[in-house]
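Trying the structure run again after the queue cleared.
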Amino acid sequence: MSLRDGTPKQQALFAFLVSIALFGLLLAVADKFERIGTPNVGWILDTEYLSPTREDVSVAGLRGGGRVLRINDQEVVAGSQHGHAVGPNVNTAVGASNTIVVRRPDGEQREQTIEVRPWRAEDFIFTQGATDIIGLFFLLVGVTVFVLRPYETQSWALLALCCFVAGTLLVLFLPTDLSHFWNSYYFVTVVAFTPYVPMHALLAFPVIHPILVRRRRQVLGAIYGMAVLQGVANITGWTVQYEGPFVYARAVDSAVLLATMTLFIVRAAWLAAHGADRLAAQRARILLGGTVFGVIPFALIQFARESFGLVGVDPRFLIWPLGIFALALARITIRPALTNARIAVRKAILYTAAVAVLSAIAFVLVSMRPYLVAVLLFPLLYVWPRFEERLNRRLYPQRARFPELLRAVGARLDAATTVDQVLDVIAAAPTQVCDARSAVAFFLPGIVDAREHLRSTDGLPASTESLENEPLVHLLRATRREILRSQLAVEPQYGNVRAECEAGFERLGAVLLLPMVHEQRLVGGLAVAARAFDDPYEAAEIDALTTAAQQGVQAVMRVAAIERLFAREREFGDLKRYFSPQIINRVMAMGGASELGSQRKFVTVLFADLRGFTSFSESVEPEEVISTLDEYHSAMGARIAEYEGTLERFAGDGFMVFFNDPVDQPDHVERAARMALSMRSDVERLCIDWTRKGYNIHAGFGIHSGYATCGFIGYEGRRDYAVIGSVTNLAARLSDIAGPGEILISGRSYGAMEDRLLVEPAGELQLKGFQQPQAGFRLLGLAALSYQS
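Done. Tokens:
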């Protein structure tokens, strides 16, 4: 990314900020050419405070300046001098002399007679050397960082700060009385902005404050709006000689600067002590030291001087400490920015050297025999690709290990058995592959299951809102390609959602967001923080991380498929407890047991139990009882599966089966009747062997049809599929009174298909739990068989 990538508005703003400092530099250079050879009385006054303009004056006793009380026996009234002037009743002819009385910063009064002589080059160095050097250094820092990392939030804040500070310092000792129009109004304007611009930097350094991301326009509008108002106040006050309501304009400047830098210190100290990111805490400590030792002395003395007139110190003593602040800014901005460019610079140098060597060889060959240049082509075609390969291995040692590192990531993914374990591996991959400080891997809801899966190497994002609702993720879903935070400021397609996307990156603590895609659908993402040494993520790193992310997608899908398979097997095993294989297949085709909600249906229920079982179980050994029940249940279970009934439960010698749920069976009454007849035949066959063994047991059956509520009952891990309603009670009572080998059906079941059943009336039956007698029929057989098993 370069300056050319910015929008016209961004490029214009960059040019405007730089021009502010360059205009100050132009005024400073013009002033030096204008004043060379003109009379230099030996000092300048800012209001009534003196600063020597020649080394001989400083050495003679005015080093450090002070407050001027009298000049040539004329008293200097506090606040009477406007701009950088020489004072009243001053002899300005070369060779003349002036006598001044100064109260030194230590309280001592000193009288000094100073001869007027022409301005020399060394006088400019003595007077403005410190301010010019430090001002240009500020400008160099701001422009360098912006060129290396253009259009980023921190780059804008630093550029604005450096340009206004540089402009202020470059014209600090220029004549700014009303006779110097451009000097005067430029100085009071940049001075008005200088206390407010650090508010912008305060929110951007050492890390970007969230409010600068979420409310950037409002915050910057408020900061620079106040600066404009202060500028209007300064200009008006300057024009009217600090009279009227604007007399305190400079005091307000100094108070705002002191308050801003105090907040700067507080924020840097808090981040230095509590910052979660080690690198951010280190930068906070550097910036804290630079502010405490570089800006606070200047701000305190300016505030005391402008507000209360207490300290009359030569401003140059306060300028040099500002260099400490500039060095601190350079340390935390230029060094990482240059780190980003170091590999490209080294590569360019090595390529240049290689080309230079080849050019020299070609020149020698041409001087000998022109056709010998062709000889170069043969080694060049062979050597150059290998030179490129070796150069890349040396300059990008981490990239040479990408295949090995990605294989290691793949091996860990193969060992993962849950979705969260896979995401842990993917979240750790950027640190292992590209030295990222941290990363967040997430899978959106509805991909694996209903919940969002999110894992991080550095703590989860503070917000609990689902990432599915994050505008940045919406953008990722639309593009399905990587999004770099640095692109937001320069790419026009992000214009309408820039603030929301910045907030999303801030929430994730990331500078790069990679999509996880499955079958052309966004299923998740990998949010990657900055690299440990602030190196940029170039195409090779992005490709490697994309590969790792897509490996993660495949691993998640594999794990999810295995989990679904296991769940289906568990579900199939559960369903086998109640349903026949045919019913299970239909249920699974419908979506599995989760689709079987409670519902009210018309069903036919069959109850059966063994007659004489209680006395039988008391007279034989338990092993014989279990063996007999096993024979009985096996035969009955085969019939339940054959006629596709739903088994609610086996309870000792009895069981209950119902029809027409969970799948519809229009012939459910006929199925129940035929199954009862088949079961009776099976029991009669079993009774032959039981009788030989001396067992006197037989089965009785009861069938009833009616409405019931059907569904799962119980708790997770132990559930039954059951029907609830009076239909089960009546079927159970019919089974209770049925004799050995007898099948009793209710009047309702008989009425549903009386033309197909062979029955004989059993009369009005008085059943337990029912007040009214119930009509019952003994089932003998089927008149017509419509069911095909």
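Residues 242-247, 785-789 have pLDDT under 50 and may be disordered. Worth checking whether this holds up in the mutant runs.
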